[in-house]
Amino acid sequence: MNSTSLSYKVLLLTLLAGFLFCSLAAYLMFKYSQNTLLNSGLLAVLGFLVFFLVLTRFNAHYQERLRSIHDGMLSLLDRDYSLNLARTGDHYFDELLTTYNKLNLQLRDDRQELMQRELMLHSVIQSAAVAMILTNAKGVITYSNMAARKLLADGDKIDGRDLIQACGEVSDTLKTVTLNNKDGVFDLAINGEKEIFYLNKHKFVLNNQINYLYLYKQFTKEFNRQEVDTWKKVIRVISHELNNSLAPIKSLCHSGQVLAKKLDNSEKLEEILGVVSNRAEHLHQFIDQYADFARIPKPNIEPTKWHGFIESLNAMSEFKLLGSLPDQDANFDPIQIEQVIINLIKNAHESGSPPELVTLEIKQDQEHCWIRIEDAGSGLKDEQIEKALLPFYSTKRYGTGLGLPLCREIVEGHGGQIRILNKEEGGVAAVIKLPLLQVV
Predict the structure, then answer these.
(1) Which of 277, 350, 400, 407 could form a disulfide with 340 if both were Cys (CB 3.0 to 4.6 A apart)?
(2) For the whole model, what pTM was predicted?
(3) By residue range, what is the domain housing residue 205?
(4) What SS3 string covers the chain?
(5) Which of the pair, 340 or 50, is modelled with greater confidence?
């Protein structure tokens, strides 16, 4: 009886009580009534009533348990996993209820894990530098990340809009390459600067629906880095070969000067050899400058106080400081950034600008700082602006073409950006953007 459930115990007790009641009724009827047929009919009616009551009780008992299981299944269909079914004391039903509760718990845990993964994936996609856009078969945007919204709508919401129309509002070039079925590289002007992008397009089927995934990746830094690395290799080769030739030339010229002093009427020869030696020395120093560009060390990032940094600059360069200095420290290599600013201020003075109109301004927020150097010179042509940061390009007659490329190399080594642009009122502005929390 220990394994017998409570419902069966109740059923047996009910049947036993019914049997005793029918037996007592039959005894009384046969004792006090002589009508056998009537007694048998009454006994049959009593037995049917007892059977009906027992069956009704048993049916209601199981209907209640089946209804609770049905309600639990409906909750699972509605993806509501909060409902757990209580044990009833019925051995066979409790096994079913236990299985249901285990299934409910497993589905709930799976859903929480899936939600956590979706949240992590959403965070990764939203923080990605690649602009990601998902559209349906009609070209309507169904999903986009922050980089995509910044590219197409300056950070505003673009979901639900037509992709081609949104691209056309930014640039005809962006619209054309998006309509094209081929992947490829294209140029796009952003904030007046030419940026290089690569578009990758995918088609896939999800839930029997055609979808398109567009990936717009900005390659400007990668292309610039590759370009600079190529120039560095060229510079190292040129430096090696020229230095190998200049060293013996310089030595031979020195020996020739010594021998010329021992000869009669050798003043002219000594003068010629002296000029050759001086030019060889000048060429040696010239090549060393190019080699230094190819050997820029990794920046030593450290907290830097603006007041002390500006005082050090004042001792070496003449400029007018605009506005107040930020109270918060910056994070950069003070020696390298000082070299950058000195080069830019030197260029400003050489532009023909009055010295008092060469200015330096520093602004800062929680994530970045901006250093702006301006002059009031004659400015630069559009072609000069575009090529100003390329190695070997110079607007000066005897320039090496390494000053601004060196500045760009240092700034990008800090994870920052540098821009050279013409001012509307005349003159040139050099703008440096550096991250405050850069770890190198």
Answers:
(1) 407
(2) 0.47
(3) 128-218
(4) CCCCCHHHHHHHHHHHHHHHHHHHHHHHHHHHCCCHHHHHHHHHHHHHHHHHHHHHHHHHHHHHHHHHHHHHHHHHHCCCCCCCCCCCCCHHHHHHHHHHHHHHHHHHHHHHHHHHHHHHHHHHHHHCCCEEEEEECCCEEEEECHHHHHHHHCCCCCCCCEHHHHHHHHCHHHHHHHHCCCCEEEEEEECCEEEEEEEEEEEEEECCEEEEEEEEEECHHHHHHHHHHHHHHHHHHHHHHHHHHHHHHHHHHHHHHHHHCCCCCCHHHHHHHHHHHHHHHHHHHHHHHHHHHCCCCCCCCEEECHHHHHHHHHCCCCCEEECCCCCCCEEECHHHHHHHHHHHHHHHHHCCCCHHHCEEEEEECCCEEEEEEECCCCCCCHHHHHHCCCCCCCCCCCCCCCHHHHHHHHHHHCCCEEEEEECCCCCEEEEEEEECCCCC
(5) 340
Same domain, residue pair 22 and 81? yes
- Residue-wise pLDDT for 92-137, tens only, equals 677 777 888 888 888 888 888 888 888 888 788 888 888 899 999 8
In-domain check, residue 121: no
Which of 218, 237, 269 is the endpoint of a domain? Answer: 218
Residues 306 and 246 in one domain: no
The verdict on 269 and 306 lying in the same domain is no
